[in-house]
Amino acid sequence: MGQAAPVSTNHQEKLERLLELSAEIFADKGYHNTSIRDIARASGVSLAGLYYYFRSKEELLFRIQERLLRTVLDDLRRRLDDVHDPRERLRIFVHSHLRVFAQRRPAMKVLVHEYDSLTGEHREHIRALRHEYMETCLGILRDVRRFCGSGDAVVLRVAAFALFGMMNWTYTWYRPEQDVSVERLAEQLYRLFLGGFLRSGDAGRHLDRCAEPLGPGDAPWRS
Amino acid sequence: MGQAAPVSTNHQEKLERLLELSAEIFADKGYHNTSIRDIARASGVSLAGLYYYFRSKEELLFRIQERLLRTVLDDLRRRLDDVHDPRERLRIFVHSHLRVFAQRRPAMKVLVHEYDSLTGEHREHIRALRHEYMETCLGILRDVRRFCGSGDAVVLRVAAFALFGMMNWTYTWYRPEQDVSVERLAEQLYRLFLGGFLRSGDAGRHLDRCAEPLGPGDAPWRS
Amino acid sequence: MGQAAPVSTNHQEKLERLLELSAEIFADKGYHNTSIRDIARASGVSLAGLYYYFRSKEELLFRIQERLLRTVLDDLRRRLDDVHDPRERLRIFVHSHLRVFAQRRPAMKVLVHEYDSLTGEHREHIRALRHEYMETCLGILRDVRRFCGSGDAVVLRVAAFALFGMMNWTYTWYRPEQDVSVERLAEQLYRLFLGGFLRSGDAGRHLDRCAEPLGPGDAPWRS
Amino acid sequence: MGQAAPVSTNHQEKLERLLELSAEIFADKGYHNTSIRDIARASGVSLAGLYYYFRSKEELLFRIQERLLRTVLDDLRRRLDDVHDPRERLRIFVHSHLRVFAQRRPAMKVLVHEYDSLTGEHREHIRALRHEYMETCLGILRDVRRFCGSGDAVVLRVAAFALFGMMNWTYTWYRPEQDVSVERLAEQLYRLFLGGFLRSGDAGRHLDRCAEPLGPGDAPWRS
DNA sequence: AATGAATGAGGGTTCATTCAT
DNA sequence: CATGAATGAACCCTCATTCAT
Predict the structure, then answer these.
(1) Are D40 and D53 in contact (CB under 8 A)?
(2) Domain of residue B62, residue span
(3) How far in angstroms lies nucleotide F7's C1' from the CA of residue A35?
(4) Which among C158, C167, C191 has CB closest to D203?
(5) CATH number (domain holding residue A169)
(6) Looking at the 3D structure of chain C, how many domains does it have?
């Protein structure tokens, strides 16, 4: 009677604490430069004890990335739910991304910086989630353009990557505690991007030597 | 005067070939995931032989980054030499950066991705060169703003990082051979940035919780 | 009187199932290459649960060997009970050994292949049972010889080991389902051995450098 | 001028010393129960230093087995070279096998006992060599039978395995220093086998329930 | 009677680096 | 200049085993 399955909950909680902690260490020293022993030491769990929670170091990395991506995607979907104005949707996208970045900095750095450290199925799995996120972004941009001008696929793709670049690069310099607030950062990046995006048109088209259309990139951010 | 130290030249050439090759491998597998043996194997030089050219693995990483940064800075200075129009200077900055990125992709990825892998003096040295580069960028942005509007330091800083983010992030997705040409990419990013930069003003200022004054605001974006 | 401890019976049954299963796995992968976890997985019992049935991995190995040896010895004694013809006794010995081999292949392989994996008292205990079995065999051979010729102890010993070699080696090649029937295999080995045994005499005696007397020689084989 | 490549020779010598030593330890403690550290300790070479000579523990096991098998096969071929009498050829086979067994006991035990510890290509390679050896044996037995009686394939196969069993099993009990001389052991086993082989005919044929002929087994001793 | 959680010890292997030649 | 040979330290991971429940 009363609460059910407290054991499982306990396990889940401890696991999440370990994910959080590991993300911090990976973010700090880099995945390959972090030893499982480092994590054992920091967590107070024995070396072997960790393997009760993850099958391998790479699975640990994978779980960190997957958990964050799911959070990001869920959060975004919820926020976009009943918003229809294209620019407002873009604004929400930028703000949501950066807010999560600020709140979960270590995991975000790991997600952005250590994608290449994954291999095999782990990588494939994360690639798929990143792809989904990228598609969401491209959809929004398409709507903005349809509303305000032409929607060249190549231009859209470059713009999307530019936007991700602006946002993701923050992990190299932005510290929420020392810099401007996330809200203001997000707003500035949003306006910076939107301002240029709306007027960029098919910039430099005439310069391009490759004629063929590129089609939708298979790379999410980059596979 | 006699022969000008042909041995030395030979040495220099071989060293540069090794730097290039190592950059490729580091870019491909990551610095920490690459072993000196990998480099020995790929170069045909014996394991011990490599240590004639570098004192340590980290020095190898350092040389790759330093060499590229010097190239970038020199190239940029030369191109900016007698150009005075602020926007044209910004345009040159963007194009120069991306052209080098495209021409020396492996080294660029290493420069961008493996900065944290440096320690001690090596890191400090590279930090200084990066700082110099950043200052050049900020100087250009300041000029653009002075020409066209207010030049809030915080806004400038965020804009500069946004620009770097857009450009540096390309290492994760842009392939010169498969994507749009570098020229077009550069032009689009330049316009995207400039368009937003010129109209972004002190976006979101009222949202900010930080107290410090930011200079006279201009018209809100939405008006 | 009442019920005869049904719990205990349950326990005994489960234990025997575990012995059987473990024998299979040990036979397949080798004792040292098998982990307790493998056994837990295969049996569906939890890792810790297994330790209710055995005190240690080695005790598990010991029980497998001991159980089989007792079976073999009991079976043999029963079959030899009222048989007095020496050759018939030998025949029974061979058939019995090989029949058990065929019926309990995994355990037999473990018994033959993993004797060295035992240590201390476990090893000593099994050694004693094996010795008993060997003595039974030697006794039979002695009778055969006494019946048909001289009974040199050395010759007997070598012959006994030869017989065991022929029989035990079957674990490396004989598969009851694919090869000749056990009956035929047993009969052929029996005749092969008996044929040679009866005529081998003190073969090669003159070749031997050992000085110890070997008893009166009989006619050379070639005569 | 003078001797060529002394370095290579040195390397080869050291490697062979390591093979020999490792064979002893594997024979003594078993392959899976021996750690590379044990070998390092016994050889005086550092742990990492060993990996200059073998790529892996399994390759070490493989080399031990391969080296011995090549020795055995070469030796046997040389001895059989100009001998034509079938019985003499059989005699040479048995003597050769046991002499090598006695001279290289540790390696022989490893070859016989640790075949299952090999995997993948290593195993396949050894399997092929064992097969070649087995075929040589079968060829000899066929000749003996053709000379003296019928040559049933199944009987031959069983006889061959019986012979191998007699000989290989010696690793479990025979100590050249304490037992009869190798020559005498070989002679006795040879006569024991030949005596039975020549008179065994198609023993127990009528007992067999499986009718189909077995054809030449693919297993050497047992793959 | 059974298990989830945990651990110390040790496994095979790779690493950056050195040094005599 | 260049290398073959060697090493100490550290890596990730698995092991048999225990103990509170």
Answers:
(1) no
(2) 57-201
(3) 22
(4) C191
(5) 1.10.357.10
(6) 1
Q: How many residues would you count in chain D?
A: 223
Does A195 contact B221 at a Cβ distance shorter than 8 Å? yes
In A104-119, alpha helices (H)? 105-113
* pTM > 0.85: yes or no: yes
| Per-residue flag: C115 CB under 7 A of strand F | no
C-proximal residues of D, 30-59, CB under 8 Å = 30, 32-33
Q: Could you tell me if D68 and D126 are in contact, meaning their C-beta atoms sit under 8 angstroms apart?
A: no
- In angstroms, how far is E1 C1' from C105 CA? 31
**D199/C191 CB distance under 8 A:** yes
- The packing angle between helices D120-148 and D86-103, to 10°, is 150
Residue C133 lies in a domain: yes
Q: Do A192 and B159 touch (CB under 8 A)?
A: yes
Report the C-alpha gap between C87 and C187 in whole angstroms. 12
SS3 C34: coil
C207 belongs to a structural domain = no
User: Is the distance from CB of C86 to CB of C140 less than 8 angstroms?
Assistant: yes
How far is it, in rounded angstroms, from Cα D96 to Cα D192?
A: 16
Give the C-alpha separation, B204 to A98, whole Å: 14
Question: Nucleotides of chain E within 7 Å of a protein C-beta?
Answer: 1-20
Residue A141 CB partners (closer than 8 Å, separation 6+): A90, A156, A159, A160, A163, A197
The separation, in Å, between residue C34 CA and nucleotide F5 C1' comes to 36
Q: Indicate whether B176 belongs to any domain.
A: yes
Q: Exposed, middle or buried: residue A36 (CB in 10 Å: 0-12, 13-18, 19+)?
A: middle
Residue C162 vs residues C137, D87, D165, D191: alpha-carbon distances, Å: 12, 20, 8, 12
CB-based touch A/D (3+ pairs, under 8 A): no
Q: How does pLDDT run across A48-95, given as a tens digit for each residue?
A: 999 999 999 999 999 999 999 999 999 999 999 999 999 999 999 999
D51 CA to chain C: closest CA distance, Å? 22
Is residue A47 a contact partner of residue A39, using CB atoms and an 8 Å limit? no
Q: Name which of D38, D40, D44, D12 is nearest D26 in CA terms.
A: D38
Residue D13 lies in a domain: no
pLDDT, tens only, B1-60: 444 444 567 888 899 999 999 999 999 999 999 999 999 999 999 999 999 999 999 999
